[in-house]
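Why run this: before we spend reagent on co-expression, it is cheaper to look at a predicted model of the complex and decide which construct boundaries make sense. The entries below are exactly what would go into the expression plan.
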Amino acid sequence: MVASSDEDMTLMMQTHSTARTRINPLQAGMRFVSTIIGPDLRGGSVEAPSQRAKSGSMAILCLTVAVALLLVVAGHAAGRRGYDVAPPLFWSGMVLLVVPTSFRIAWPTTARGERLFLLFLLAEALFYCKKVYSPTSFSGYDEFLHWIAAEDLITARRLFLPNALFPIGPTYPALEILTTAIADLTGLPLLVAGTLLLAVLKGTFIGALFLFLESISGSSRIAAIACLVYMGCSTFFLFDSSFSYQSLGIVLCVLAFAVEAASKDLVGRPRLKSLGLIAVLLASLAVTHHISAAFAAIYFGALACLEALRRRDPMRIEAKIGVGLTAILAIALPFLWMQARGIPLAGYLGPVIEAGFNTLLGKILGAATPTSQHLEAPTKALYLQLTTLLALLLLALGLATGFFRSLAMAAQSGARSSWGAIHDISKCRWRDSRLMLLTFLAFGLPISVAFRLTVIGWEIGNRMGTFVFLGVGLVVAVSVVHFWQGPAPRGWRRIAPAAGLAVIVLGGVASSAINPIDGRYRVAADQESIEPMGIETARWAKEWLGAGNRFISDRINSILLASYGRQDVRVKIKDGVDPASIFEAETLGPGEFWGLAGSDIDFLLVDLRLSTAPPVLGFYFQPWQRRQGTPISGSALLKFNDVKGVTRIYDNGSIVIYDVRGLHENL
Amino acid sequence: MRICNKNDLPAACLWAGAVVAVVATTDNLLLRTVLSVPMVFLVSGHTVLRAFGVRTTSALQHLVYAVGASLSAGIAGGFVLNAADFLTPLGWSLWFWAVTAAAALVAAVHRDRPDLPAWPALARVRFWQGTMVMLALLVATGAYALAVRDEAAHREFKYTEFWLLPSPPGNTGRITVGIRSAETQAQRFDVEVTLDGQPFAVLRSVAVAPGDTWTREIPVPALATRQKAEARLYRPEDNRLYRSVSTLVPRN
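The model came back. Tokens follow.
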């Protein structure tokens, strides 16, 4: 049964009319709600008649995107100088980039090839926008950690070198392996090799995601719109485009999903061959990133469970065994790697997850919040908050109107246009377990949003988004295609859904960082705190003190010293002595003094700018330290001037380096 | 129409061999990049896919799978070369050659390997469309170049670095005082050095231009006891103490 979009609209109007005239308004209301959120797949065949890609519109969009990129670059340049015109320039560029491409991708009659081209264009253009924030260096905190690891690898030519700033990093060295392979073979600097790798990963991710969603939904239109919705994830623009192991992990993860989904109807040797490729990808994933590997394990484990639950299976038992074997591999390989390397993953992730859950539960149950929670989250501009909120509302609308429709798509083909499909599913009769799983995965969105509302749980909510949006993308795309647009939409049905999708993508950019535009220096704000003076100081240390001296400093200068300065930066002076207390205390107490004297630390780097404002992220040193709402005092930072055995060897007016080697002789 | 010959396999082996030759013989960045980047991202994975015999149904699918398999081959190479203590450029080129050659051999000897998917027909591009795409590339590249230039040129903070360092081990009896300017214009400074609180040396009207570094090694007596050297930087125009640094003179 195929109904046009106009018929769909007529039905809704009739429902209104019915509600006015009939005796039972409750029943009419129920029908109306059912029409909106129900499982009717009124789009019927969602693929537009086959047509060739329009090279003219692609060429025009290429030029539009290029002009948009120029505006984004101008926005960053204005932001560096603190000009008020920066946000209008940057966001006009973003709107020019996202809106026309989104409209064309979401257009019902656009050809598959053209959709694909535009998806690649948009993904790479967004990566470009991320890169021009800091075109000559890495910018994010995590990027520096991996850059340091890559520098260590290419210098020592050995894996698993210890990294005090990132203890778990050396046990997941895949990103550094690939980057140094490119750098070694080509002779390119690590920054360029890393950027090249990330650009290829971005394209591969979009290609793999498209193939994955196309093979389970059977529609290139749904797959393309789902990819577009995925770009609205808060991690897509920045976090998963950064030089960090999750950027590689999520690509391998989705590649494994795509290969598995494409092989779902295969049996015998072809299935085994695909399983071989999946095994290789999962093995690579196991040594790449813990959370992505865990998600792959959860996905394949859940898929195997759903396959086991599925009744009236027209598929051969062989296919079920294939899914089961994949699940075993996905679970066993990361576990084996952790055992082989002795990775203390529970100790690394456990406290973060526990604190996040406790905070969220406390918030729900109205329990007293910890002191650190009294500090507010970093403030964002109102327009950024409103864009994020609007995008979230549109996603919620898409989920509400797409959830049952996605389930209906997963149902056995006999009952596609009524609640009978849902009834079938409740009886464990569905066509494709992957579709079921992704539909239920979309439920993760409200949970991730809830986490993001807490200061401590924000990290969990943000990371969840990367995986949850696989489901969100699909459900919203089904909603757009089967409810909002239909097969041959006209009038507002063409414009409004595409505009909504553009807002969702812009919302992803808006929620990706406190401020996605490069700006003036801010205290303890990760990438907003990295500027040439700190970099030059770190380079001075390398040039005049040599590499490998033991330093302690605040969070930002630590990564600058370790990367540009190639220093041996420590986060611990010795057991029981916290570096933060060394810097924050007004006077150097006996505990700190003897701790420092008894340590092997050579130098302290003190950034006096820390005393000018409270830390933007709530901490000056490390996230696990007490959150601060007030600035550290200048006299506390300068107390080392008067300590016998400590000399002030470097001063640039804002940054001072103290030589504490003389203290060790006091012992 | 699927592609049913296996000419791609010897071509991949030749490509891998060319990478080994180029990495072993030249430092030419362009040549090494042009040959090595496809090797790392595509060629090795393509032959691995052929060896596995995974059937791909479209060019996109084949490309995406080949990139995934290449990434896996590269990651595996890291561990193998680390175990062999051969994580060097030559080691990497030999690894990719070995993977490509071995995979091509496996693919060649098995007769049941699936054919390659056909390439999609290219859309007809008119002159104006090609011009627009080229213009777009030019604008995007130019914008990136502007971003690089702007970031390199922009400095939020203007400052002068001042330091005093003890002599390195084995070269006692000297201290090094240095100034580096990151100001907007050239400046003159007076430098005053004291040793255990006693005036020891004075350097007048030291001129440092933006971006320049000025250093001076000052001989100091190396004694059996530790001495503290201090250096102060003054700006002559206002005779204000601008910077102050210190160091310990190593014992004799």
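Residues 382-410 of chain A form the longest helix (29 residues). Residues 1-13, 15-19 of chain A have pLDDT under 50 and may be disordered. Bring this page to Monday's planning discussion.
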